[in-house]
Amino acid sequence: MKVAVVGAGWAGLAAAVDLTRRGAAVTLYEAGRVAGGRGRSVNIDGRTLDNGQHLLLGAYRETLALMRSVGADPDALFERHPLQVVDRDGFRLALPSWPAPLNVAWGLLTAATVDLPEKLKTALWMQRVKWRGFRLRRDESVADWLDAAGQTGVLRRKLWEPLCLAALNTPAERASAQLFANVLRDSLGSPRRADTDLLLPRVPFGELLPEPACRWLAAHGATLRFGHRVRSVADTCVDGEAHDAVVIAVAPQHLQALLPEADACFEYEPIVTVYLQFSAKTRLDFPLLHLGGTTGAWAIDRGNGLFGCAISGHGDWDAWSDAALAASMETALGLGPAQSQQVIREKRATFSCRPEQARPNWRTPDPRLILAGDYTWADYPATLEGAVRSGRRAAATVLQSASLPA
């Protein structure tokens, strides 16, 4: 069976690996020079940096399984920490390595700078949400959801709103409450303690999945065509080359150029990453720090004195210069002057996770043509786990359509 996969992001890689493993002759097309899509490494002035700060959780089971299947060992490539949310104002919520849900309950009850009545009120609210299976009566903004629940205190400012911005890349005022509830269901609300663990990369992002997956694909007979921007997909012909099936795994803003009938009308949110290099001995007490302030940024200690400060979503900082952004992050981090700075802007890093946002159907009228990408995995916001799951679903659908075991 001859299958084309268009796009070598995490969704396209997942589809290509599963198809190749089941004996399909796969051709992987990628417009860029490297794989990874929005989760890749880039070379800037001879230095390898990531195009954003992508945090993984233990709940990313399909992603971790895919990494293992292509020879990448998550235990060696990540630092694993029980989740903590910490800021410079003294707030700290730290989960112990206890079985769920005791770990979350203890973390909540011992959260610093939060009074006991607010903790109990929040615990009861979380329990009610869990009883309802994390299904909301209607989708609304996260801000409205929190208002209705009486979540207006310290935990809203220090926990729920920062987590919403980090997970959905969309501020609480315009983010989907149902998608945020889905994220909570599979993390803080999960019965598996390990699902809440924070996974911080020890290596550049390309070494986690894109590079090992490409090596695995090449070794198993797949054809990799980098620097090839696909211009047309007609039936199952890709730029005039015939295939038995096609998986389109491009970013949503590129979808309609290949598939005009596809309904992928999104607004987009940016991510700005400010890299600050300090002396190699400079470390944080915990490698993830919420900087807050006007930007709501998070700082990630990448080791050897390198810090990646991630600013999510639209805001006044869209118009700031790179120098102003770097100065703001340097001040918020509070570690003194940095030795060097580098700013990477992704203007359309993710789709905006609005309430009742329509998602394109991953199936098309032609059963031989399947869509993949985080925006097609309707249960999640724009996450790497959603991308991988959508790619594996696309591969399974192609195999089923060919009457092969999936």
TrEMBL record:
Pfam families, per database record: Amino_oxidase
Signal peptide: none
Source organism superkingdom: Bacteria
Record-level Gene Ontology MF annotations: oxidoreductase activity
InterPro entries in the record: Amino_oxidase, FAD/NAD-bd_sf, SQase_HpnE, Zeta_carotene_desat/Oxidored
Amine oxidase domain mapped to chain residues: 11-399
UniProt xrefs under NCBIfam families: HpnE
UniProt-recorded name of the protein: Squalene-associated FAD-dependent desaturase
Species for this entry: Azonexus fungiphilus
